[in-house]
């Protein structure tokens, strides 16, 4: 009988992270959740993971913007399950502004959460993965890790950095049965995206359908949002034996955005 694996998924109390947690749980992994949603929402999601998939799920409220928070998350996971087999670095925030007006604190917060947190968690788990001869590290980058858009200097810089981190750690771990990859989503239909649409429509004098097609999906040739289930399916595949030769890759799941 195969030993049950454990996955840590940051930013997994909603959106893409929760979708990936569900996908990995469905494949039989125990889950360590982390996020900032209201406690009752988190508890509902945690219970659903256990009930729907017959695994054990725990939650950490650790602040991923600090090295101490990352260490707290990893320590809880190891204390509970003994080891970490899969790490998904998904937590992130966004802020939009011309670079000359970009607030210093917003820059620092985005770099801390979108880039540095992945460094801290990776640093904490990769040694154990190498010793055991198996591990999967999956970084959720973005189409903005491959191409830029205006007014998103911190986010684009962080996501480009994540891809550089991915490639570097992949090379360091390649002979030890550990793969490190980045998934690069385009626009994904999440509660966060859905909430932006009415305000954007009002501000631009457009219908909500026009906002979806002509604003949000302007660069996405399919003119369709990707789904959290698609992101989860890619993550599950990257954890499979069929993907053991895929490492150091940045995989676009972006409806053709980066084919331009």
The count of β-strands is 7
Shape: globular
Biggest beta sheet summary: 7 strands, parallel
CA distance, first residue to last residue:
47 Å
CATH architecture field of the largest domain = 3-Layer(aba) Sandwich
Count of separate structural domains: 2
Radius of gyration: 18 Å
Work out the helix count: 8
Low-confidence stretches: none
Describe this structure as you would to a colleague.
With about 260 residues, this protein is an alpha/beta fold. It folds into two domains: about 5-185 and about 225-250, Rossmann fold (3-Layer(aba) Sandwich); about 190-225, no CATH class. The protein has helices at about 15-25, 40-55, 65-80, 105-130, 155-175, 190-205, 210-215, 230-240; strands at about 5-10, 30-35, 55-60, 85-90, 135-140, 180-185, 250-255. It has a seven-stranded parallel β-sheet with strand order 3-2-1-4-5-6-7, with helices on both faces. α1 (about 15-25) links the parallel β1 and β2 (about 30-35). The model has no long low-confidence stretch (mean pLDDT about 95).
